[in-house]
Amino acid sequence: MESTAQTSSESLADQPSAIPEGEKEALEAIAAAFQSPKTDAPNLYDRISELEEEVLAWKDRAMRAVADAENIRRRAEKEQQDMSKYAITNFARDLISVAENLARASTSISSEARSANEQVDNLAMGVDMTLQELQSVFGKHHIRRIDPMGEPFDHNYHQAMTKFETTEHPAGTVIQVVQAAYVLHDRLLRPAMVVIAAEPKTPTTGATDHATSHVDRQI
User: Fold this and answer.
1) If residue 35 lies in a helix (H) or strand (E), which one and from where to where?
2) Which of 141, 164, 182 is the last residue of a domain?
3) What confidence score (pLDDT) does residue 33 get?
């Protein structure tokens, strides 16, 4: 019986080195326990429980390390994608002014001036063609112009210059666009400068009563 236990313990201890370090340590401890004649069963079971807990702890650490490595990889991929996606941000901002100036130049030449002078008409046609080509390039690189006229105010894309009291439009509606907004993909390049509608201020009841009594005293 003793020789059988010794043979089993030796075979457990002589397992290939491919066994994980924690489990290898547990097997060696079990083999040593079988080889020692003084070791009693309760102590052996306690030691096995301790080693199992250690194995579980190391397994948990390994799983956490793998999860952390995966998160780092995903963040690195996203940063690389964003870097490629928004690489032309500064260049796009510089071209916005060029596009707006071309649009103002095109609209400033009236149809009467174009028809009255051939040279003016040719010049205006060149401006229009240049503007169209630039807008086509903008579209190719996902640069969009946003004109929020008549839309509700959105602080993500609009910047309010002032409020205008009116009853013709709901409060918070954009009633004038001073400068259009531009976005690259979903990133804001330049906010729209707008005037928004506000509810007219009505005098309070106390102020109305005071004004009425003042008029009565004067009469």
Assistant:
1) helix 21-35
2) 141
3) 60
Quote the pTM value.
0.59
Distance between CA 87 and CA 90 in Å, rounded? Answer: 8
In Å, what is the CA distance from 171 to each residue of 30, 122, 137, 159, 181?
A: 80, 45, 37, 15, 21
Q: Are 195 and 160 in contact (CB under 8 A)?
A: yes
Edge-to-edge strand ranges of the sheet holding 143-146:
143-146, 181-184, 187-190
Same domain, 156 and 127: no
User: Domain check: are 158 and 169 in the same one?
Assistant: yes
Q: What are the residue ranges in the chain where pLDDT is below 50?
A: 1-17, 39, 204-209, 211-219
Does 80 reside within a domain?
Answer: no
Asked whether residue 81 is domain-assigned, the answer is no
* Cβ–Cβ < 8 Å for 168, 196: no
Mean pLDDT of the chain: 82
* pLDDT tens digits along 59-90: 999 999 999 999 999 999 988 888 888 999 99
Please name the residue that has the structure tokens 């205008």: 164
Backbone angles phi, psi at 133, to 5 degrees: -65, -40
By the 10 Å C-beta count (0-12 exposed, 13-18 middle, 19+ buried), 182 is classed as buried
